[in-house]
Amino acid sequence: MSRIKKLLSSYEGRIYVYLHDNSIAQQFMIDAEKEGFKFCDGEKPTQRIPANIMAVNRDNTINYVGTNGRIAYQVSNKTGDQTLIKIDYRNIVISMGEE
After folding, report:
1. Which listed residue, of 29, 49, 87, 99, carries a Cα 20 to 30 Å from 61's Cα?
2. ∠85-88-91 over CA atoms, to 5°?
């Protein structure tokens, strides 16, 4: 199964993905595009510069995380009424291996 879609099938709640460095960030964007994810406006992931925290949505979109989301990532386990799932993408790449 694909890396990012596996996250969606494994967790309930809002998924934020931490991208430790540029290499991991680029891998996330490549993986997202390969798996059919786009930004909400239809732009392909590899056409944009990744941030160090990205949100993965159940409608096969990704988005940047704004100020409130970044604060929640640091201090909370919820965002709104949803459980906040925090994933370090390094661990996903290591556990699933290079594709």
Report:
1. 99
2. 120
Q: Which helix (H) or strand (E) covers residue 83, if one does?
A: strand 82-88
Alpha helices per DSSP H over 11-88: 22-34, 67-75
Summarised one tens digit per residue, pLDDT across range 24-61 is 999 999 999 999 999 999 999 999 999 999 999 999 99
C-alpha to C-alpha distance for 70 and 2, rounded to whole angstroms: 26
Q: Which residue has the tokens 């290079």?
A: 98
Residue 8's alpha-carbon distances to 3, 11, 59, 63, 81, in angstroms, are: 9, 6, 10, 15, 18
Q: Facing residues of 15 across strands?
A: 56, 85
What six digits make up the tokens of 42?
Answer: 């239809």
Q: How far apart are CA 52 and CA 65, in angstroms?
A: 9
